[in-house]
Amino acid sequence: MIKAGVIGATGYAGAELVRILMNHKEVEIKWYGSRSYVEQPYADIYRNMFEIVDAKCMDDNMEELAEQVDVIFTATPQGFLAGVLNESILSKTKIVDLSADFRIKDVATYEKWYKIEHKSPQFIEEAVYGLCEVNRDLVKKARLVANPGCYTTCSILTAYPLVKEGLIDADTLIIDAKSGTSGAGRGAKTQNLFCEVNENMKAYGVATHRHTPEIEEQLGYAAGKQILINFTPHLVPMNRGILATEYATLKKKADGSLPTYDEVKAAYDKYYAKEKFVRVLPKGVCPETKWVEGSNYVDVNFVIDERTGRIVMMGALDNLVKGAAGQAVQNMNLMFGFKETEGLEMVPMFP
Amino acid sequence: MIKAGVIGATGYAGAELVRILMNHKEVEIKWYGSRSYVEQPYADIYRNMFEIVDAKCMDDNMEELAEQVDVIFTATPQGFLAGVLNESILSKTKIVDLSADFRIKDVATYEKWYKIEHKSPQFIEEAVYGLCEVNRDLVKKARLVANPGCYTTCSILTAYPLVKEGLIDADTLIIDAKSGTSGAGRGAKTQNLFCEVNENMKAYGVATHRHTPEIEEQLGYAAGKQILINFTPHLVPMNRGILATEYATLKKKADGSLPTYDEVKAAYDKYYAKEKFVRVLPKGVCPETKWVEGSNYVDVNFVIDERTGRIVMMGALDNLVKGAAGQAVQNMNLMFGFKETEGLEMVPMFP
Amino acid sequence: MIKAGVIGATGYAGAELVRILMNHKEVEIKWYGSRSYVEQPYADIYRNMFEIVDAKCMDDNMEELAEQVDVIFTATPQGFLAGVLNESILSKTKIVDLSADFRIKDVATYEKWYKIEHKSPQFIEEAVYGLCEVNRDLVKKARLVANPGCYTTCSILTAYPLVKEGLIDADTLIIDAKSGTSGAGRGAKTQNLFCEVNENMKAYGVATHRHTPEIEEQLGYAAGKQILINFTPHLVPMNRGILATEYATLKKKADGSLPTYDEVKAAYDKYYAKEKFVRVLPKGVCPETKWVEGSNYVDVNFVIDERTGRIVMMGALDNLVKGAAGQAVQNMNLMFGFKETEGLEMVPMFP
Amino acid sequence: MIKAGVIGATGYAGAELVRILMNHKEVEIKWYGSRSYVEQPYADIYRNMFEIVDAKCMDDNMEELAEQVDVIFTATPQGFLAGVLNESILSKTKIVDLSADFRIKDVATYEKWYKIEHKSPQFIEEAVYGLCEVNRDLVKKARLVANPGCYTTCSILTAYPLVKEGLIDADTLIIDAKSGTSGAGRGAKTQNLFCEVNENMKAYGVATHRHTPEIEEQLGYAAGKQILINFTPHLVPMNRGILATEYATLKKKADGSLPTYDEVKAAYDKYYAKEKFVRVLPKGVCPETKWVEGSNYVDVNFVIDERTGRIVMMGALDNLVKGAAGQAVQNMNLMFGFKETEGLEMVPMFP
After folding, report:
1. Whether complex ipTM tops 0.85
2. Is D196 within 8 Å of A351 when comparing Cβ atoms?
3. Where is it predominantly found (chains A, B, C, D) (predicted)?
4. Helix/strand/coil (H, E, C) string of chain D?
């Protein structure tokens, strides 16, 4: 039984971490960090936890916390962890960071897209990008894991095998992503009010969303070259779920023909057949966010459009689970040598 | 490890049973009965079960099923179980019936409200009404459990302590209940289409809903007399959740005053303080369906209105869990001597 | 063509006023008051008004505004109008107040429920309670109309004929009301975020909601005596719509029997047969909020429960139209001698 | 005052026609055709029309109907109008067909995508594609107008100026469209049940949706050549609204640079500045479906992505209004010489 601390435990991702860790056999939460609610009972903020979590919220003192726990999850605003991290902390505890602070290897890129100065660039190289299915072995040895973004996880896993196998021209990649509203966080903003979101849909952050460089960097590694893509996020009137619809031009084979369904399917299977949490759906079945709700699954599939020579790839996940807290726990399992699926065997809830 | 069969496994309640039993350590599902989908892979009907459930749907042959399993869950239309049940079946297997067939002790009452003939009245007396918190000891010894209705479970548990303790005049009880749409089942009816339910709210079955006599019978036992109540169900644009708002006149004490908050709270605590799945919320906190979603909890609370001398009681549960499949598993746990909470420790999912 | 000013034009009720007045032949809006957005183009706040409303938001200077317009609508927080009203203003312009400042005749009652001091008690007597169907003749002559609350309009109109005709015992009245979330206003509060409201339902303000004394006062006039009722509001995951489900004990006739359907129906028809905006639905049809969405209609109906001797009354309206802005325009039409339905003939939008 | 008949008046598009025509000064509906509900009062099917529409549903006898009215709207399944149309009918009445029967000029293309035989190819050439903003002059003279599809209207109008002006490479066009559920019609299908759609999102008909060739044909005319595009529709948990997000590669200018914002904006303004129903939003403002709900507006805008050399175009409309019934009325207005905006000046409803 290890001890864990959660900083940012009263945000939606932090609360999902708490939900998942409650049913994890190897972990006990010792610290519910929430700057806004210090000293208030956690279950007063999240009433679903009434009679389940008995603790009070604590502050975000990482130094003190590092003394007490084996792992810290930081579900915090951009810049928080980079602002406080030091070797002393990292020598005492492992960290899974759900913010973007250590996801991007190039500091200039980070600072350009996030518009803040990076305060701890010295830890960037060490940080492991925690996309478990891609970086499993590195995660196992990591002290500091940068947990991928929600859009990013979905976007990358949906296209990864085809980029890696060179079946598509990575520079033609266009990602049209749709997210439930929990991705916008729990801040009290007019634009996230029920009446503004319900019966509504919109794109936002067009050509400027911060998950773009993260996707480009990771898929660039797979492509073996730097790539530029289009990524457009949309807000959908639902609580949970991300659906990524991705378009790319298929590379023609030597004989000028397009890859076949079976050839593309084989690429997906090569990377995902043994992956518990990535499900390549049967031919003709489109992923739906509801089929993964509450679970750590990513469902993916594809359709080849012979007319245009493009492939349409689709991926669906729960943004708070595989897109945040679930993947964070999966990373923790790897870091501590637990069964990778421990605490994550929730069956998707339908309806 | 016992073996279970589910008849009606492709309805919403049946599918929820499957979801819950997947994470139950003592049970293995051997039979996914679904007359409409015989021979089709179960995961083709419920895609959330892809790579989780590998079985095909089977028919609803109770005779054959009884040979193979230790317990049968019937999540079937009214009249099905009463139409096929016999001593041979019951001698081989235990049954938890999620339909209304054996909930009502008086055949005439059943036939009047359900407008069908009861084909197996000989088993009515034996059947135990499976409201675990009230009938725990009887359930433990039962072969045949009548699992309570969703509205009923919520309505009864919300008022039970006050009726039992005589704090309210049971004949003044008015139950205004609101349900998510999964309670209407998965049948393809125009009235349950997204566009008809979304952004809409209505009462239905006013003064004629079939859960009325079930509530009256059970609360009548608690009151020690026959009672008549008003029960009005409403359809709400959400998938899951029942909220019951209940009104009753408080009985005045000998000195003519109303019972105090503490006195009423003590009545709730008397019956629920030790109950894992019933949470009496802190003073002033109203139950919300979202706080129990996906879990087996019922949250209850109350407000005394000094001006009118009435009490307003409120209860919330997930209609597919504590209102159906979760309670069915809780009953099974009692019937087989498992830990009562086994498979039911899901933390409510929020948001 | 008269000139109108709207104070609070960027709240939901104010914006609905703007929407309705855009299609009103006799009115031109000259002043879009919004303290929070002074000098910003109105269509920047409400993008639906792009290329429709060209004006900028102005402040809430009632003195100045009174010089310029024939009528002022105040869709403002409690206390605003009472804080600034004076005879000079009222001598220059008519006012329809959508706040509660002048709805309640007894200052002490107002101050008790609203917990603020009333700054202009001298205008309370003059103010006409603008429930058009009840007070039409008084409204026609009024300078100052107190536009009824959304819950109140629905609650009163649903029960009014039966109270007025003495068919029910008014003290047994219990009103269980459900509202869409626009009723909570556009303020950025965590509790009104999409993720908190969606897939959720709750009661709030139990026994303490401010519309209670307003209902009691108005139905008390109809009953010819002071009455006390229970009123419980609920928040529903939809944008618009209020559904009131009301319970009362029917008075028995001289022979001890209950009033018949026809007798009750006759009471409704007596008051509503000629009312354009109140629709008494056919027997057996329950009101649904979606059937009145976007329109000024109130749909009402009832079911007699012979078993309990109670009647269940139901009413549905759009809280922003008949529950706020529509009724305000209806009042203005009466005050200025326009056709009562002018600008209000919107057909309900379905789905 | 002309007389109109609506065939398919009880589908969602038909009902929206009825809603709009109720407030149209020049038209009276004489025939509410609905094969499924013949002889039933129309207001029994659409309760929002209670006390507004007094008529009963009639059959779909076009011959008889043509004798009685000046214009027929056919909001019918594919193949209906082509199956019954003849010169006799067309000589007596004008027709606005909301189905796809006469939208596509090439019969083979129609039969390939719709998988039914076209029974009246002789009228295809005469039929005018009723995209008012593009074909206004032809519509004015037409007897038979093929009203565009909902996805199609949104998709075409969003990209039209750039295709027409040659600013983008039309063959790179990728349209990712999202629709509310009313687009799926009122048929009682499991997949359209509230619980299946709510809290869910999916793509469907990937690479095979029938609106694809319609978009390709019309944008091909604008491009002056045949084009092939990708079109992916998605189902969103809302009643109304289509959002199209469209991607294309910008053609570089002679100096190798990309077109500027102002140059692209000028292209949009060239075609839409005088169009009442197409609103080009201010720079940086993304269209949202809620801002056009209930109205005949299409909101469009764009973002140039300098990094990838692509443009992201966005368009939003109400699928039942500008995407169906509103545009049908706009076409009728043109055909009969009424004011083009008559009956269509509804202000979008928010929230």
Report:
1. yes
2. yes
3. cytoplasm
4. CEEEEEECCCCHHHHHHHHHHHCCCCEEEEEEECHHHCCCEHHHHCHHHCCCCCCEEECCCHHHHHHHCCEEEECCCCCHHHHHCCHHHHHHCEEEECCCCCCCCCHHHHHHHHCCCCCCHHHCCCCEECCHHHHHHHHHHCCEEECCCHHHHHHHHHHHHHHHCCCECHHHCEEEEEECHHHHCCCCCHHHEHHHHCCCCEECCCCCCCHHHHHHHHHHHHHCCCCCCEEEEEECCCCCCEEEEEEEEECCCCCCCCCCHHHHHHHHHHHHCCCCCEEECCCCCCCEHHHHCCCCCEEEEEEEECCCCEEEEEEEECCCHHHHHHHHHHHHHHHHCCCCCCCCCCCCCCC
C243 interaction partners in chain D (CB closer than 8 Å): none
| Domain match, A115 and A202 both | no
Nearest CA in chain A to B291: A48
Question: What is the number of domains present in chain B?
Answer: 2
Same domain, A56 and A189: no
Mean of the per-residue pLDDT values of chain B: 98
Cα first-last separation, chain B:
34
Name the residue facing A229 among D178, D199, D308 (closest C-beta): D308
To the nearest whole Å, the CA of A128 is away from the closest chain B CA by 29
Q: What residues of chain D score a pLDDT lower than 70?
A: none
Residues D112 and D189 in one domain: no
Summarize pLDDT for A257-300 with one digit per residue, the tens: 999 999 999 999 999 999 999 999 999 999 999 999 999 999 99
Q: Which residue of B has its CA nearest to D182?
A: B195
Q: What is the pLDDT of residue C101?
A: 98
Give the integer Cα–Cα distance in Å for D264 and D258. Answer: 10
Domain range for residue A78?
2-126
Domain assignment present for D330: no
Note if A150 is an active site residue. yes
Peptide bond into C148 cis (omega under 30): no
Nearest to D199 among B192, B195, B239 (CB): B239
pLDDT digits (tens, 9 = 90+) for B255-290: 999 999 999 999 999 999 999 999 999 999 999 999
- What pLDDT digit, counting tens, does each position of A172-210 carry? 999 999 999 999 999 999 999 999 999 999 999 999 999
Find chain C residues with C-beta within 8 A of A190's C-beta: 186, 188
> Residue A146: inside a domain, yes or no?
no
Rounded distance, CA C58 to CA C213, Å? 34
Question: Which residue in B150, B154, B195, B286 is the catalytic one?
Answer: B150
What is the b/e burial string over B26-45, where b = at least 16 CB atoms within 10 angstroms of the residue's CB? bbebbbbbbeebeeebbbeb
Pairs across B and C, CB distance < 8 A: 147
Q: Is residue A338 part of a domain?
A: no
Least CA distance to C180: which residue of chain A?
A195
Q: What percent of chain C has pLDDT over 90?
A: 100
Test mutation, A194, A201, A238, A320, chain C, max C CBs within 10 A: A194
Question: Does C336 fall in a domain?
Answer: no
Give B70 to chain C, closest Cα distance, Å: 36
Do B186 and B300 share a structural domain?
yes
Contact B323, A85 (CB under 8 A): no
**pLDDT for D76:** 97
Residue D238, pLDDT score: 98
% of residues, chain B, pLDDT over 70? 100
Residues B198 and B312 in one domain: yes
Instruction: Identify whether residues C272 and C164 lie together within a single domain.
Output: yes
CATH number, domain with residue A36? 3.40.50.720
> Encoding tokens for residue A188?
């009290």
Q: How far apart are CA D278 and CA D267, in angstroms?
A: 13
Task: Please work out, in degrees rounded to the nearest 5, the angle formed at the alpha carbon of residue A100 by the alpha carbons of A97 and A104.
Answer: 110
* Residue A160 and residue A258 share a domain: yes
